[in-house]
## 1
Amino acid sequence: MFSNPLRWGSQSSYQQVAGGLDAQKCSPEKSASLFSKVTYSWFSRIIILGYKKPLEREDLFELNESDSSYTVCPIFEKQWRKEVLRHQERQKAQVSIHKESHAGKPSLLYALWNTFKSVLIQVALFKVFADILAFISPLIMKQMIIFCEHTSDFGWSGYGYAVALFAVVFLQTLVLQQYQRFNMLTSAKIKTAVIGLIYKKALLLSNVSRKQNSTGEIINLMSADAQQLMDLTANLNLLWSAPFQILMAISLLWQELGPAVLAGMAVLVLVIPINALVAIRVKKLKKSQTKNKDKQIKLLKEILHGIKILKLYAWEPAYKDKIIKIRDQELEFQKSTRYLAVFSMLTLTCVPFLVSLATFGIYFLLDEENILTATKVFTSISLFNILRIPLFDLPVIISAVVQTRISLGRLEDFLNSEEILPQNIETNYAGDYAVGFTNASFSWEKAGIPVLKDLNVKIPEGALVAVIGQVGSGKSSVLSAILGEMEKLTGVVQKKGSVAYVSQQAWIQNCTLQENILFGSTMQKQFYEQILEACALVPDLEQLPNGDQTEIGERTRILVTHNLTLLPHVDLIVVMENGRVAHMGTHQELVSKSKNLTNFLQVFSDKEDAHASKRINVIDSKTILEDQILEQKDRPSLDHRKQFSMKKEKIPVGGVKFSIIVKYLQAFGWLWVGLIVATYLGQNLMSICQNLWLSAWTKEAKHMTEFTEWKQIRSNKLSIYGLLGLIQGLFVCSGAYVLSRGSLAASRTVYTQLLNDVLHLPLQFFETNPIGQIISRFTKDMFVVDMRFHYYLRTWLNCTLDVIGTVLVIVGALPLFILAVIPLIIFYFTIQRYYVASSRQIRRLAGASRSPIISHFGETLSGVSTIRAFGHEQRFIQQNKEVVNENLVCFYNNVIANRWLSVRLEFLGNLMVFFAALLAMLAGNSIDSAIVGLSISYALNITHSLNFWVRKACEIETNAVSIERICEYENIEKEAPWIMPRRPPSQWPSKGIVEFVNYQARYRDDLGLVLQDITFQTHGEEKIGIVGRTGAGKSTLSNCLFRIVEGSGGKIIIDGIDISTIGLHDLRGKLNIIPQDPILFSGTLQMNLDPLDKYSDSELWEVLELCHLKEFVQSLPGRLLHEISEGGENLSVGQRQLVCLARALLRKTKILVLDEATASVDLETDHVVQTTLRKEFSDCTVLTIAHRLRSIIGCDRVLVLDSGRIIEFETPQNLIRQKGLFFAMTTKAGLTQDSETKNKFL
């Protein structure tokens, strides 16, 4: 289904917030003088400031209003809406005239052109002017050589040529830098526009579309495909500029060498089809690599979200192998691509030589009297040098176009994917009911099997309604239907007023507690405090150092229950069974209707009425959809996260340490490094030898006819010229091959080390660092390592050798040139020092500003149902715009810094050209015209080489920031080793005796103790209940047992072995836990149960039967091989929890920790599961972390904690008799008033 253009909102949603651009440090670009604009002198203050101190975000200039996302996004969305409407009209027209509708789709490319065509045309005009100026320089040089050949014409005209040459190259510099400035910023605006559209579309996706586009794939569209579009735009003009330059060069060469230039054209005609074949092959590889990258990001994101499960079960190696397997496939694609790049390198270096060789050879064959003069040779060589760049650019841009076509296709598929239909729900209903269903049936897909059937429910306004039923009965689906998240197949759904929604899986943003609670609403202090009291958050906030200003991480967990304690207090109960309403009425009506239903309710309704009633509070008459009960329990998010706040990404300052580059070279391999230096040295020596040979040849040309065998001599000289070119080609191929091998080795080593570092980090790191920061290392930073850093190193090395060779050649021809070179090089290095200090820090700021984009995007995708339920799409679009704009500010400053550098470096290069030309003119008839041609042609080349040399040196340092960011994780304190020399016996633990001896623990060295002097011992096979108020340390105790938190004193002994003396995997692999969070990973059900592939199918079926999942799994098409979607979203939360129970039963060990294990299953299933656990783990030591006191009925002893200390440790019966803290807790919960429960305790 194509996008509904009317749903994309108006431009008003993109209005700037107060304190936006106007309140920030505005760019002085608009008010600057013309000279300041063309030389970028207005930016000098940032460069100087960056040299004096590390730049901070506040130091940077803000964007011009026309470049910001505030302006760009609404303009582009308007054009996209127009394109969608045009496409729909074309389809209607085809249908109306009975024509078959072609399977087309709205064109993203056409919408982009309509948005940015004026600035793209402006950029193209700059490029045309710069290209024309580039060809004027060889023509002036030609006149200078002619001037030197005719000494009788000596006069002031020679100096005029030198000045004219300087003026042309300087003007070319100014025009080219304006082209680069507009080009780069336009490409950034295109990326911004596309990201804004992707984000907005992600908020509108239907359930089917969300299944088709995983979170990883959508993030990849934003990070990789939008970037690919930006990269193409930055080079788009080369698509016409390269052929234009080639034609210009050929036409000028025709004037010098006549029809012989057709031989050179023939070489080009042969090369371009080969490049096209290479591009087609690259397209296929790129398509495969993109799919592979999507899988990698998806799995990586799941691993990071489920890292606690991996650590508790010691599954890190299994999932590491999965990631490495995908990464190896990606490197195979990269290897093929890089071997194809060997041909591109050969094209860049050798095609100009082959063109010149063919041209010179045919030139001699056309007329035996033809000779190569200095004028013809060096004018031709200059033109060949100009020709080299477009010859290289053309295949690159063709390849980029091919790759971008893939990205455009993916983007268009996504932007035209199916959206949720607003008409599924009537929201303008003004009747007596808050929500009404009339003969309504729903499915998750348009053509899918109905999940909810024939619903006829009228929910009165202001009523409190309970929807109950067994796991998979459709309870959560009812709420999804009200929210419009499901496809309505039949019937009518009416909704009155606004909605508040509590998701079954808690979605918490990475911001302060207060911001999470307010969720965009205006602060009303008295009402806010009432809400805190109603949600039992006041005791938690009192324990947090910053209260409700504490920043919450991305892994906050809240218990999901099927609690029926509220049923007597609600106005209406809806009982779901197999997707239908089985019963509906008040509690009393349902109890009186059916004996079976009475039993159903009575069995599972505990009598915590007093506790429940405290949590029932009608706050507002608005519709509140609640898919969970927030238990007043020991929340891990507030227990140990009270010691942490989310960390802002640290931005390094100062120069990148040389050791960072050394680390990369070590990963590259010193052998490969040495071979690369040798091959590139040989390549540059051969290039110099070719030009020196031509210079010597032209010196002799005027006297060539004096020799009797001059034709043979000319043929020999041409053969030697060809041999030098052949040797150069061999060096080029060897260098490209060595570079490919070494860079692949570096990519593999760096990635593996990063993955190892991340998997060995302690859990606290993941709870205090946004996942976006970590993923950014694996995506953007690894992209630099994979694709860019080795290129910058190679280019810098090549430019260094080229500059050295050029200076030596010019100084050899014109010794006085050394006097001009020395001060100019001093200026070069001075400019470089100032630039690098600023550019490096701007690059770091840009890197840090990328992570919030990814984090916010991922966060939005996780909570899209909640955002849509509250109707806060526009607020989140605004937030996305703001984080994108922050990154744009850094990009803008980086672009201007580069232009500032280029103008100054090229000006110094232009001075070198001027001095070389001036010295040649001053020498007059004392210097051969061949030497003049050689020196000036090299001088014209040195401007580009020196500029590239300094720029690539800067690029190496600024891109080394990515390697620096990757290496940061090496220096963070890791967990203990997975395996240590001392290993426990294979049958350990055999008794299950757990002993804490004077144990203490804290979360950080600078924080207080969270467990103090904990000393107790269990008996073998004993069942221990662990209770305490919120923050008492219950979950911390279990974390210490698994060494998630390391001790600060004392020890923990299991069956006689101090657990601190063995490896983490030897410990965690012998313990068992059923955690609160039912986390599953994408892949087969079998893989989720047994990722290490240790158990047989029969064992898997046995545990599924024990967990009452066997019948359900047998009904699935793939049975054990059924594909679990990302996060287990194609299973209900209760089913996910049962899968986690099956894991524990499969992994049966002597010690089991239960952390509210049946939180997400209905109470009937809970009863059966508890019976199964008691039977299957009867011979095991079981530690139950009790958030509900009823769950420890039947425990042998109860451990009571308070403020990290043991207060009581006795049998439940003795604790009740002692009337201490445990007695007070049971009394408050109403358990001692319940005779049945009291008898169980006593």
## 2
Amino acid sequence: MDRFLWFTTYSCVFSVVRGLSVSLPSLLMSGTLSAADRKQQLNAVKMSVFLLCKLTENLESDSCRESIVTAPSKGRKKEKASGKGLQQWDSERETVLQCLTQLLQLDIRSLWNLSLVEEEFVSCVTFCCYKLLENPTIGHMKNKPTRDAIIHVLGVMVKKYNHMLGACVKVIQLLQHFEQLSSVCAQAVSAWSSEYGVKAIVGEIMREIGQKTSDELAREGSGVKAFSSFLSELSTLVPEAMIPNISVLLTHLEGESASMRVAVCEVLGEVLVRVLSGDKLDDSGRADRDRFLDTLQEHIHDAHSHVRARVLQVYSRIVNSKALPLCRYTEVMELAVGRLGDKSVLVCKSAIQLLAAFIAHNPYSCKLSSVDLKKPLEKETAKLKEMRENMSEKAPVAVISAADLWAAMEPEVSHTVRSHLEAGSDAEREEDDEEEEEGVQDRSDRDTAIQIAQYLRHNKYSDQPPTPQKEGGKAADEGKENELKKQEMLVQYLKDTESFALQVERAIAVINNMLYWKTTTVVQEAVQFCVTAREFSVADSVCGVRKMLPLVWSTDAAVKDAVVQAYRRLYLNPQGDSTRAKAQTLVESLSELMVDASLGTIQCLEEIVSNCNENALQASVVQVLWERFSGKRETSALHKRAAVLLLGMAAREVVLSNLDTLCSVALGEKVTEDYLLARDTVITITNITDHQSKGVPFRLPVDHHLFSCLTQAIADGVVLSDPHWQTFMEQAIRLIYFLAESPDKLCARLLQRSARLLLEQVTEVCCVSLAQLLSLCGAVAFWQVSHLERSVSTELRRRRGEKEEKEEKEKGPVGKNKDANDSCVEEELGLTGASAEDTEAEFIRKICETELLADGNMLSVFLPLLVKVCSSPGRYSHTQLTTAACLALSQYMMISPTVCKDNIRLLFTVLEKSSLPVVRANTIIALGDLTVRFPNILEPWTPNLYARLCDENASVRLTAITVLTQLVLKDVMKVKGQVSEVAVLLLDPEPHITSLALNFFNELSAKDNAIYNLLPDIISRLSDPERGMKEEDFNTIMKQLFSYITKERQTESLVEKLCQRFRTAKTERQWADLAVSLSLLSMCERGFKKLQECWDCYSDKLAEDAVYQPLLSIMAKLRRRAKPQFKAQVEEFEKKLTVVHTKGLENVENEEREQQLEEQTHSEKAQTPLPKSARRPTRGNSLTYAFSHGLSA
């Protein structure tokens, strides 16, 4: 039908329905409708509503169909025309629904007999509404009015027209077929429950979903996701309505659907936050709350990682809403810390978020330090103990109530009263007159009462029972009891706080290691956690804050930004009323961070400060730093050093323009009193000059005041015993070579002056002073070589470039063309720029070889002394002297290959025989540098370097693994079988060494086939009987190494190699190690076939359990994931293994030979020849034959 005709018909019907909604109210309210009129109006309503609903359905279907067909169409006209039709219906859809709502809200039920509306009428209206809900775009924001109108129409039908059960069924069907309607359905059910008062519909739908079995949910597919989303959304809208029927959903917690478990857990969390929270819950509410929390705690260890993560997120919401009871904090905290070791990254991330929420919303203290809490806890515990002792000594007298007192007195009082009254009452009553009887009786009663009181007081109750305490004493005792209760509560509070702080500190130790994970989101969460922990002054939180510093160099922009923002939040966000106050706060924060900071830490902080430079505070901060450094403001030596380092970061130009001030303050007459301040000042100046722009290098003349101060401070310190002089001297020599115009001449005079001072000042040369002089020689030698290869070489290239540019300008166009032709030839031959650079390199090498240690050079004077000290450890046994001499000798060996060759044997002798760990560690570092500089000379000595991995001292092993890792991963040193010594360090008792060894193999695995090529040699070395490695240790190491073998071809090749090594293995232990190694491989079908082919290599060892059991475990792994045909082969081979293990290889082979002979004899005796096809052996015999010959069937 034409669209125009559709709309025309629709307009007519719509006008009729609207007319009915206007005319019916007056007719219905009048109550004068006859039966015929009522029937006429009823027919009009039914027909018009029917037509309107059907037209709406058809128009909606055409609209959806047209939107799908025209979506990818091209051409403006077509799109415009189709868009106009769609837009027209989109605007009419809401109007139709409003009209229906207006009509249905009238009391039209009275038009039906007995007000019973036919199901067909209800179905007609509701079907139209559900049809509109199936529109794919109904959930979009632009369709919210239409969506609300549909919900209102259905709400009227549910409330007035008995459509509740039908709505429940239809909601379930919509969820099953349209996953995108989960949010819409939740909104609808919420509206029907709250706005229309049909609360029972929530329970009905929950029961329908709760009765779904695991099999039904498995068949649902996308419906399961829709159910879970619906329940989660509904819990956020009407959590109160879900509580009565929540038990029907709890059955899904035991089901197989992870999505449904997530939904139920989210429902529980929402109910706990929105309903079952606060201190005003009754006993039933508390019971429900505890039951739901127990359920959530159980699913922190759910089998599915997604469920575990969502439960942790639910707990984060509960903690953030302060809905978690205080008594559960420690328990949930412990569970969250345990989840930090989860295999799932999402779970780890959620656990970090929960722990951060615990710290941010903890009810205990703003400072969580178990160390700080220990003393107050001990003090208050002692006070509580004292109060309890005092209370026990002064126990209050038992208070007896009046009723108890009378109960104790009544028997004797009654007996006494009776005996006294019976004695004289009869005689007195007879003598008295009737007129006096009443007065006498009164007098007798009074006298009797007085006598009884006296009698009781003096005779019977002289020892009275305890009487109630006075009001004053009672109030005092109650006050003491209240104080005792308060003290008990305080002690318990401190205990809970300490327990909470210990859990946080335990979490910090784990999370600090997560800062260097490869997953960006986990690293970001770890950074945020460290910031939160630091803000609450948790013990050891500074370790995490400092540990994240190197991440500022991360190539991941998100990680770098997280670290920068973290430091901005902690240290670079000053608070104060004025700019000056803010600057002081900022300087205080950064100074605390700079205290005892290493050189690497300072470089990282410099990068952060450069990223967070606040121009508004720049001048004020520099002023505060200058005041601290110059001493205008009284401050500690640590803060003064921090100030000069921060000046180098924040104001480089200011520092350069005030070199004289720096020299006078830090390098003046009092330099010997604080070499650390002098060192940090030198570092600041060096870093500033190192950032200078390219071009003519910035150099100062030799007679500059800075160099006078430096040489004076170095020379004077040689004869002193200041422990900080060494670090100052190294930085000062570095600065001299960076800034001085002729640093070699300056340092030569410095060496001469220092040696003269040493000889003049003491009659007998002090070992410490001599050690410091030798350290100075080594530093000068090292920086002289660095100066030549860095500064001089760079300057030569710069001058060559300027010369070439000048020559090009002087040449004309003809000369340029000729040079271009020559350069093309040189480019083809690969000689462009090579000759000039080679000439410069050769020039530098020649200077190092011939001039630096020539007879006239000051450095050559000290070389024999260095060799003598290093080669005579018995004579020169002073620790500092030996250390300095060995380090200086290694620095001299950097000068030229000749010096290196002449002294390399001596250096390795020192490495192996020195009794000082510091000497061995320094020598390893020096040999690493020499390996980079002269690889060919050091290559034969590689085994000696690897031998230090087994050093008895942990610091030496740590240094060795660090140096070797760098050499191997940078391809300076070839990877050989000695890597087995690195593998042994995977079990080192020192955790840091273990982590470095693990990192070595992680990085090595990134190189193509590196670990695959090394594995056979590593296994042979580690299983060598002479090494004597424990079986458990071998298995642990191999398990880690085989985890890097992931390629199928590598596995197949290793199976063959390991099987071949069974032939050369001599001991049972070696057989067992090879079998275990085979079992650690991720065996595949090709590997299994290779294992069959190599049967002869290990079949004679199968009698040993240590060989048989690992091979059996291989078969078990293969059988689990094997296809039927391959599984049969595995089972057949497993039977063969078992038979050989139980009977022995020889017996099995004899049985097979006898069986083959019998079959051969039987075939020869047969009279009738069999067809050719029948002579083929059976499958079982062919398999037996194949196994016996080492082939796969």
